[in-house]
Amino acid sequence: MEKSFIWLTAFTLISIVSVIMVPQKRYIKLLPFGIFAGFLLSMAVMLLAVPWIRLWEFNHISSFSVYGIPLFLALTLLPTTVIFAHYAPKFHNEEKLLFWVLIFTTATTFAQGLLQQAGFVVFINWNLLAAMMLSFAIYSFLALFIINYEVAPPETVKE
User: Fold this and answer.
1) Cα separation, 146 vs 155, whole angstroms
2) Under 8 Å between Cβ of 91 and 97
3) How sure is the predictor about 3, in pLDDT bands with cuts at 50, 70 and 90?
């Protein structure tokens, strides 16, 4: 199997998980947020970090890439953000919301570590601790944005 398919495989798997975890009507409602906060934000971060600052680089990229950034990797953050936004309002207090942020930060850092160990990502002027702090900052910002602007208000039960 071609190694560049790892990015498409990751996108496909997380998309399937998100369709299973998020009800269809909610998914459609959260899709614009996923596009902006997931895909476009991750592309902006990677466009800054990869070709300009050279913090890390990707190996095994396919023809579906922009400036050395696999598009399917950035697209993977779209369904991830939809899952995050769907469940974030269910955590009512700060401690529970912090726990939710830490779950996604840990999962993201773990995935980045696996990709680095497998040789798909090469850290140049970067390390896993910096990746974890960036993930924590982004998920914290998204959680606060979701809660404060009611991007995904909890579903109400009709009686």
Assistant:
1) 14
2) yes
3) confident
Q: Rounded to whole angstroms, how far apart are CA atoms 65 and 136?
A: 26
Which residue type sits at 50? V
Pick from 86, 84, 39, 48: nearest CA to 67: 48
pLDDT tens digits, 24-67:
999 999 999 999 999 999 999 999 999 999 999 999 888 789 99
The whole model's pTM is what? 0.93
Q: What residues contact 132, with CB distance under 8 A and at least 6 apart?
A: 105, 108, 109
Instruction: Select from 106, 107, 102, 88 the least CA-distant residue to 30.
Output: 88
Encoding tokens for residue 30?
């959260």
Domains of the chain by residue range: 22-148
Kindly report the number of other CB atoms within 10 A of residue 35's CB atom.
15
Give start and end residues of each alpha helix (H) in 22-93. Answer: 24-33, 41-47, 71-87
